[in-house]
Design a protein that fits this description.
single chain; alpha+beta; ten-stranded mixed sheet; 10 helices; 33% helix
């Protein structure tokens, strides 16, 4: 099994004094029915979207109940009444302290989720997985500002050669930081929706928890972006699910993590995807052998959780511009210098 410290042998040049591994700070907040987004939380973060408005507390209760129910349906052994386990979800935020000419500035970099499993039969807490959801200001900038500007007035869509390089290096540096290594003993697993621009093909490979594996012939833009972060991807349709999920990971997804750890990620992220993308993950039919996900699919059911997807898209652009103004533009030259001197 690959541990956190084995992810890379990082070397930085003398010029790379702007971003140090000690420059990352961690903040934690419990995601439960009393959750209120902090002032520093990205407004586009999906779980922050769920915690606003007059239905906020009902939203949160329903989400937590759905996660627990899904976990128990997957962890069904020695669980006859289907209520042995509950899942606690924690929002983990990493901030970056930027040090230039003895002047410090803090920038909210990345937010992920950490899960813990409560075994009510034996009254014990079991570590789940860190990662799950993935929110990033720099990713907002890359996808909502940089890409549209790069392709403006061009007949064909293209990707800059260095697209995702800075973000990928920041992420790798974060994983090597004391803030990460002192708090987490395993590398993250990120679980996202499959791409609506690709077709996925069912294979004969089947895992008892992750389910049936799907594959595709060409990586999506998101797959390529996460590859810059050092992560591989596999696609699995878990038991009793209707669409495959994309799992981004280091090492060996199938052997580096326990059964309950994997279930904690599936149950958490499948529930969120049912809310965010019901056309795909709350469809009324199971993905066929050759599957092309579509947000225009009409045969699906809505959950009882209120979620404003249009608002999220608008905020992604706004926060991408904020990143450009507060991080990319003022520190552009030093970021370029740091990125060029960083090797993993």
């Amino acid at each position: 099994m690959r541990t956190v410290k084995q992810i890379s042998n990082i070397k930085t040049g003398r010029e790379a004094t702007m971003i140090k591994q000690s420059a990352f700070n961690i903040k934690r907040i419990r995601f439960d029915e009393h959750y209120h987004p902090s002032d520093n939380t990205r407004l586009t973060t999906n779980f922050a979207n769920l915690a606003r408005g007059e239905n906020r507390q009902e939203n949160l209760r329903n989400v937590i109940r759905m996660i627990d129910n899904r976990f128990n349906s997957l962890a069904h052994w020695d669980n006859l009444q289907g209520n042995r386990y509950s899942v606690e979800v924690e929002i983990v935020s990493f901030e970056l302290d930027i040090d230039i000419e003895n002047k410090s500035n803090s920038f909210p970099l990345i937010e992920i989720l950490n899960t813990s499993i409560i075994d009510k039969t034996y009254q014990k807490r079991i570590s789940g997985l860190v990662g799950n959801n993935f929110s990033s200001y720099v990713r907002d900038y890359d996808f909502s500002v940089l890409l549209p500007n790069y392709n403006k007035n061009k007949p064909d869509f293209n990707i800059p050669n260095n697209f995702g390089d800075l973000h990928g290096k920041l992420f790798k540096c974060l994983l090597q930081s004391p803030a990460y290594q002192m708090n987490f003993h395993k590398l993250p697993v990120i679980c996202l929706s499959v791409s609506t621009n690709k077709t996925y093909h069912r294979t004969d490979n089947q895992h008892p928890v992750l389910g049936v594996e799907y594959q595709q012939n060409e990586f999506s833009l998101t797959d390529q972006y996460f590859a810059k972060m050092g992560m591989k991807v596999r696609y699995f349709l878990p038991p009793d699910s209707v669409a495959p999920l994309a799992f981004y990971f280091f090492g060996d997804l199938l052997s580096d993590y326990s059964t309950l750890e994997l279930i904690s990620t599936i149950s958490t992220m499948e529930v969120f995807q049912k809310i965010y993308r019901p056309e795909i993950y709350n469809a009324n039919s199971v993905a066929p052998k050759d599957y092309h996900p579509s947000l225009s699919h009409q045969d699906y059911s809505l959950t009882r959780v209120v979620y404003d997807r249009e608002e999220r898209s608008q905020l992604a652009i706004a926060q991408g511009k904020y990143t450009e103004e507060s991080f990319i533009s003022p520190y552009h030259d030093r970021l370029e210098q740091w990125s060029a001197s960083y090797s993993a």
